[in-house]
Specification:
Elements lengths: L8 H17 L3 E3 L8 E7 L6 H11 L4 E6 L8 H6 L2 E4 L7 H11 L4 E5 L14 H9 L3 E7 L4 E8 L5 H12 L14
Parallel strand pairs: 1-7, 2-5, 2-6, 3-4, 3-5
Antiparallel strand pairs: 6-7
Helix pairs in contact: 1-2, 4-5
């Protein structure tokens, strides 16, 4: 994987201190921590209803000392912003092309020599989504890594890491359990998030 802001020593330290200060001033609380055994993992990023989710996610990641990579639509990576978005941990996704994103993600996680938390928004977009995409689940199963249920709850101004979820292979039952965890959370645009 490419070098990111999270693996840039001095910048990471400064941005961690700034993130702690900004979140505190904004009244946000950071919860949880990366559990042992989840150094390589897939994070669910939900709810995802606003452009504000990215800066809040990055600040929470700094506070929790994560090595975060996140998937975003290719449009975010057009010049002149491509280098910046990649440095922020972004991985461009070509939604229109039928490439095998799951297989590529599995290979990247397996090939990574150190810590790597791949963040995937199951809603696939900030727009209202009634059906969650299951790519995050298949990536975790293929890479044999746990799923960490990360969250931003604008209703209570809190963000962080929830429980680790080990996929059982019964995706229908597992999705019911995962969505039940996210049901109480409010996105910035609350009417656009449905975990049922």
């Amino acid at each position: 994987m490419h070098r990111t802001i999270f693996s840039t020593p001095i910048v990471n330290t400064v941005l961690r201190a700034l993130s702690i200060g900004i979140l505190k001033l904004a009244g946000w609380k950071v919860e949880g921590r990366l559990p042992p055994g989840a150094e390589k993992s897939v994070f669910i990023a939900a709810p995802h209803t606003s452009n504000w989710d990215l800066p809040y996610t990055l600040m929470v990641a700094f506070v929790l000392r994560l090595d975060l990579y996140w998937m975003g639509k290719e449009d975010l990576f057009k010049p002149p912003f491509r280098g910046l978005m990649m440095w922020l941990g972004g991985l461009p996704v070509h939604r229109e092309k039928s490439n095998n994103l799951v297989a590529a993600s599995v290979a990247a996680i397996k090939a990574a020599s150190g810590r790597l938390q791949l963040t995937v928004a199951p809603e696939g977009s900030r727009s209202k989504a009634h059906c969650w995409k299951t790519g995050f689940y298949h990536i975790a199963v293929g890479a044999q890594v746990p799923i960490v249920m990360a969250f931003l709850d604008y209703g209570q101004k809190r963000g962080g890491l929830g429980p680790v979820f080990q996929p059982t292979g019964d995706i229908d039952a597992d999705m019911i359990t995962i969505k039940a965890f996210y049901a109480p959370f409010k996105g910035k645009n609350a009417d656009q998030f449905h975990a049922d």
